C-alpha cells in the first residue's frame, strides 16, 4: 500500500468513526426522549422495554467478546513463555498480543458507553 492509499483509508476510517459517534449521540437523545414520553404513554413503555432488551443483548455480546479475547490473550501469553518458540514467532505473538489488547480496549469502551448511557 502506498502512503496516499493509507492516508485515504485512515481519513475514511476517521470519517466513519465520527459518523458512528454522531449516530450514537442521536440514539442517546432519542432514547432519553422515549424514556420521558413513556411515562405518559403506555404503548411507548413496550417500545422502551424493547430498546432496553436490545441494548442489554448488545452489552452481553460485547462482554462475551471481551471474555473470549481475554482467554485468547492468556493463551498467547502462555505460548510466549514456552521454550519451544523462536524469535520470529515471538515477534508475531507480540503483534497479535497488541492487536488483541487494542480490540479489548475498544470493546471495553463500548461496554462502558452502554453502561454510562443506561442502555
Number of strands: 0
Q: Separation of termini? A: 40 Å
Element-level helix/strand string: HHH
Q: What is the residue-mean pLDDT, rounded to a whole number?
A: 85
Integer count of domains: 1
Helix content: over 70%
Globular, elongated, flat, extended or rod-shaped: what is the shape?
elongated
Radius of gyration: 20 Å
> Main sheet?
none
User: DSSP helix count?
Assistant: 3
Give the class from helix and strand content and strand pairing: mainly alpha
Low-confidence stretches: none
Beta-strand content bin = under 5%
Oligomeric status: single chain
Topology:
Elements: H1 3-38, H2 42-80, H3 87-116
Helix pairs in contact: 1-2, 2-3
What does this structure look like?
With 119 residues, this protein is mainly alpha-helical. The chain has one domain. The protein has 3 helices and no strands. The protein has helices at 3-38, 42-80, 87-116. It is elongated and about 65 Å long. The model has no long low-confidence stretch (mean pLDDT 85).
Looking at this protein, list some descriptive labels:
0% strand, 88% helix, 119 residues, mainly alpha
Task: Report a brief summary of the structure.
The chain is 88% helix and 0% strand. It contains three helices and no strands.
Amino acid at each position: 500500500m502506498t502512503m496516499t492509499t493509507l492516508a485515504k483509508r485512515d481519513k475514511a476510517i476517521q470519517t466513519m468513526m465520527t459518523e458512528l459517534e454522531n449516530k450514537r449521540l442521536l440514539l442517546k437523545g432519542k432514547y432519553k426522549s422515549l424514556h420521558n414520553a413513556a411515562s405518559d404513554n403506555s404503548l411507548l413503555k413496550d417500545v422502551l422495554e424493547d430498546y432496553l432488551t436490545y441494548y442489554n443483548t448488545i452489552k452481553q455480546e460485547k462482554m462475551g467478546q471481551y471474555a473470549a479475547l481475554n482467554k485468547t490473550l492468556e493463551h498467547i501469553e502462555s505460548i510466549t513463555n514456552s521454550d519451544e518458540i523462536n524469535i520470529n514467532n515471538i515477534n508475531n505473538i507480540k503483534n497479535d498480543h497488541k492487536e488483541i489488547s487494542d480490540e479489548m480496549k475498544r470493546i471495553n469502551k463500548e461496554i462502558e458507553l452502554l453502561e454510562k448511557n443506561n442502555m
